[in-house]
Amino acid sequence: MKLVNKKIKDYTQIFHLFTEEEWTRTSKNFNKNISAFFTGKKNEVFINVQDQGIAYFIGLGKADLQPFEIQQAAIKFAQTYKGKLLAVPTLVVGDFMIEKQFEEFVKGLLLGTYTYPFESTHAFWNAKFELHFENLSQKKLDFISLKAQAISNGQIACQEWLNKPANLKKPDTLSLYLKNLSKKYNLKYTVFNRKKCEELGLGAYLSVNQGSAYDAAFTILEYKTTVKNAKTFGLVGKCVVFDTGGISLKNPDNMHYMKSDMGGATAVLGTLIYASEMNLPVNIIAVLPITDNAISENAFLPSDVITAYNGKTIEVLNTDAEGRMILADGLSYLVRNYKTDILIDVATLTGSSVRMFGDTCGAMFSNNDELKNLLIKTGDKTNQRLWNLPLWDIWKDDIRSDVADLKNISMKPIGDCIVAAKFLEQFIENHPKWAHLDIAGVAFGNVGYAKEKAATGFGVQLLADLIENYH
Ligand code: BES
Ligand code: MG
Ligand code: ZN
């Protein structure tokens, strides 16, 4: 795709963008019959075959729409018509559109080409696909083009890995991908195998991994800027490539969805791709504790007491509460070994958060009001919403154990997403700016590109926006 600020005369494709108001104002310039089919409502598309070429009239909805709604409309448009659209110079007409709106439109076109398995052979990814838009300077268009491709590459990588079936994303396959990705983007790549994890004392992570047929892969990816005094973000992404529940085996009815239990990690992965392609003036230390949660003769058992990286002991009462185990070590390893300004962990952590919010928002927990408010604001802006839940100390009582410092579940049938967050708080080593995002209900769900539930890409645009605009 290329963005060009010249108006072209001989186009074969034209995208006419309208809000309802804009259509009312300008419809008189068009064949009056069109109004019988087109009003400018969101997701309305009218196709008019004209002498010059094919005109797509694309409805965006009310004039006061938010930028993300333009992205949504563009995604829908691309998903519906992607088989028909041509890789040719295309004129875009939408005089009312400001820079941010056009940016969202372009992002939506690219994101809307995604289906599993992804093929970047679609017309929109072809250099011959030129979008001609004369309202913005070439400099601004170049920046929009860079940004739209960076966010699409990040989110598509996120969706692609989440959508892969379990047999195509064993820990070693994922590790190989991350290693190559690090080469491509010049990230520092570190991986600790089982032996190294034992030496380091990453006991909580290892307790989950010990039942796996695959070696441990406690992974650290570092993106560094040369800009001085840049902020450093610590990101921990839950990376359970498949969660059977372990010995506390899950019910099989919905078990196949547990290929999505790496949704935290893929959100972090997408963010790293975005930061790298945009060359953002920040540092990111990403910790991805990779494992499956398998059943085997070596699997950890309910009643096991294990020692975490920070020395705290944990009584395992349910092996299906494995995410908080691996995140515990991910968090304390990151805090003890790196200096970070902001610490965020992202995880498909609890069914409890799904029962609470469904697919409407992620559950957020934070010990810092500034970070909390910024995350809520960024979530609203990117339409990857978060809602804040409490971390009151009364919840700590529920995870006190008789035989260890902590137990990994409360045994009460209430508030498990809060209990899990309270558990994680015991491993942040007093970091002053931490947020935990439980995205179990939003990472995988109903999408426009698949019949069944699939990856939504939740978290990439949220974290990318947060990091890019953090001061
Ligand atoms: N990966 C699951 C959480 C989950 C549930 C993600 C639904 C996506 C959709 C997590 O590891 C888990 O199994 N949690 C248990 C904890 C329980 C045993 C305390 C749960 O929520 O049922
Ligand atoms: Mg589990
Ligand atoms: Zn899990």
TrEMBL record:
Keyword annotations from UniProtKB, A to Z: Aminopeptidase, Hydrolase, Manganese, Protease
GO BP annotation list: proteolysis
A Gene Ontology molecular function term of the record: metalloaminopeptidase activity
Key word Cell wall biogenesis/degradation present: no
The UniProt record lists the keyword Hydrolase: yes
Gene3D superfamilies, per the entry: Zn peptidases (3.40.630.10)
Stated family: Belongs to the peptidase M17 family.
Protein name: Leucyl aminopeptidase family protein
Species of provenance: Chryseobacterium shandongense
